[in-house]
Design brief:
single chain, alpha+beta, Ubiquitin-like (UB roll), 2 helices, about 15% helix, globular, 2Fe-2S, 2Fe-2S_ferredoxin-like_sf
Length: about 110
């Protein structure tokens, strides 16, 4: 099963089921993650910086393309509410701007 590893959350590892978004996988494991629009792809607060394994992600969704075209989503970022994995493992981190105050983040 594909896996998400979040480096600055103490190397948290989350299994991601086929067709499941990263956000849904994180929520299924009771991990809080910023998502102001409720996971609808209408904002960029749920983004993740991909450090390794971008090749294991499904193609960009229409929402991600729209934000990328507007300069609000960098080439190494994905929206966790939109991104699914095709195989393998990806490593990412929570951007500084969307860290939640009650969570403990490592460097």
């Amino acid at each position: 099963m594909p896996k998400l590893k979040v480096q600055n959350l103490a190397n948290l590892e989350v299994e991601v089921a086929e067709g499941q978004t990263l956000l849904k996988a994180l929520q299924a494991q009771s991990t809080d993650w910023m998502h102001a629009c409720g996971g609808k792809g209408c904002c960029t607060t749920c983004r993740i910086i991909i450090l390794q394994g971008m090749e294991h992600t499904a193609p960009l969704t229409a929402a991600e393309i729209r934000y990328r075209d507007r300069g609000r989503l960098k080439d190494n970022e994905r929206l966790t509410c939109q991104c699914t994995l095709t195989s393998g493992e990806i490593t990412g981190k929570v951007p500084e701007q969307t860290k939640l105050p009650h969570m403990s983040y490592s460097s």
